[in-house]
């Protein structure tokens, strides 16, 4: 079919390497159908789904069950992460065989009880992932320090939204980043730091890179488009792990993007129910909020303001993610690649309306923002899947599998 793109830009479909679509077991928050419809509406044609579900995806059997459960429900293509937990290194190869895109390691407490604070267990997991030739994506916060600071704040009677930020100071991230990069180099693991959030964390990564350590870095839309003034406006809705930071950190992340130090921008689309988001006690509130549908409009707006270029958006949100995870056929609009593309109107002026979004619970701190640039239509492998507010057709998404680079040393 011919596509009339007069006056529009054609971009490769975005590849969001960090979403939580909540299957199995948490479908009151989101499910594969609703989450991937939101992705299609946001110009995102490939998502990487995280394993901190109920139960978590930490064995080959659970991986197979999840694949069976979600495969017929996806409106865009998807990859699935397995998890590295405290004693599942024997399961990593089996998950890799089934097509795992990579493995998520939670060093510190976040949604679900998946944390792996034990260094020996972390190292065994890193070795197993290296042997499988797959990327490990890490939530880098020191769990022991998080707990200590959290206990102190609770003992003082603090329950306000800002206590979450105070309980997760930057050095908690710096410490974890330093430790995991050091271990990943030793184990020969391809390492990716998810949601790096602080100036100090980015400085440390760059210092370690200068010493020869290889690691990719992701920043979140939320850490770029919100600063700590958001606690006063949105309360616990903007509770996020790692937390929304002061403006100086936000500026440092944008500088990192301008210098090319940040490899990837992702959403950490992390839905919760409206009740969970409305919880006034910060220790009872859940971390994370939706974002897969609003990433591209926010970035296009930043591009219209001159903060980055459209080419930067394509590199950070499509080309680099596909390349880093060795997802063949994605991330570029050239012959030989899938015809995953998005038509955007770079000059359309709109106001972001939460009610128009496609997730199960459309609470977003970006409601009411003025936008320049909007998604007009999304195509998945040549098929129209979204146009002007409407999802077109049924769930035609497929699992994407990485091309594994298994080193001879690991065989
Ligand atoms: C994520 C979630 O809710 O699954 N929450 C968050 O605050 N980021 C988990 C995570 O990515 O750490
Ligand atoms: Zn995380
Ligand atoms: Zn996440």
Structure report:
There is one protein chain. The protein has helices at 32-41, 60-70, 92-97, 119-132, 143-155, 162-166, 170-187, 199-210, 221-225, 230-234, 247-259, 274-278, 295-304, 310-324; strands at residues 9-12, 14-19, 44-49, 77-84, 102-106, 135-139, 190-193, 215-220, 264-266, 341-351, 370-380, 383-387, 390-391. The protein has 411 residues and is of the alpha/beta class. Strands 2-3-4-5-6-7-8-9 form an 8-stranded parallel beta sheet. A hairpin with a 2-residue loop joins strand 12 and strand 13. Helix 4 (119-132) crosses helix 7 (170-187). Residues 18, 20, 50, 268, 270 line the site of one zinc ion.
Features:
411 residues; alpha/beta; eight-stranded parallel β-sheet; five-stranded antiparallel β-sheet; 14 helices; 13 strands; 35% helix; binds N-carbamoyl-L-aspartate; binds zinc ion
Strand and helix map with partners:
Blueprint: E1 9-12, E2 14-19, H1 32-41, E3 44-49, H2 60-70, E4 77-84, H3 92-97, E5 102-106, H4 119-132, E6 135-139, H5 143-155, H6 162-166, H7 170-187, E7 190-193, H8 199-210, E8 215-220, H9 221-225, H10 230-234, H11 247-259, E9 264-266, H12 274-278, H13 295-304, H14 310-324, E10 341-351, E11 370-380, E12 383-387, E13 390-391
Parallel strand pairs: 2-3, 3-4, 4-5, 5-6, 6-7, 7-8, 8-9
Antiparallel strand pairs: 1-10, 10-11, 11-12, 12-13
Helix pairs in contact: 4-7, 7-8
Bound molecules: N-carbamoyl-L-aspartate and zinc ion (2 copies).
The site of N-carbamoyl-L-aspartate has 11 residues, from loops.
